[in-house]
Amino acid sequence: MVNSSLAYEILLYINSFYFGLFATCELGTLILKSVLIIEKYGIDKDPTKIGQDYGVLLGLFVIEAIRLILGRKGSLSERDVPVMFSVLLTIPSMMGVLYLLVLQVVVLRIEYIWCTLMLSLQMLEFLFAAMFIATMCKGPTYD
């Protein structure tokens, strides 16, 4: 049987480093894209869409940071409530990554790779967090 707590903690640890890389690269590419779009198409190229991309990216940064902190805290102390909140925050975080993957003004090929890796990590964390919660909520067995 797989120790879901250990696997979940390892995934959170990996994701905490990958999230820093992902956030830095996404912010850099979004700044680059906004400069190139303004330069190429002029300022009339719907600046609200670029502002919406920045808003989604900022929201994703906040939600993902809170999700990782709650997941790590709940996993290390073996409490199920912070992990449940972390699992609930996974859904808006996945939606933010999907927005960056599909609905941005311009999506680069490298962003497909970054966002796909982020979604894969989040899905694995979701699966192992659900297994961790199921084992925590189960009563003790006496053999």
From TrEMBL:
GO cellular component: membrane
Key words of the record: Membrane, Transmembrane, Transmembrane helix
Top-level division of the source organism's lineage: Eukaryota
Main location (coarse class): membrane
InterPro entries for this protein: Uncharacterised_TM-17
Transmembrane segments: 12-32, 53-70, 82-102, 114-134
Membrane topology category: Multi-pass membrane protein
Cellular location(s): Membrane
Xref: PANTHER family: GEO07735P1-RELATED (PTHR13531:SF0), GEO07735P1-RELATED-RELATED (PTHR13531)
Protein name: Transmembrane protein 216
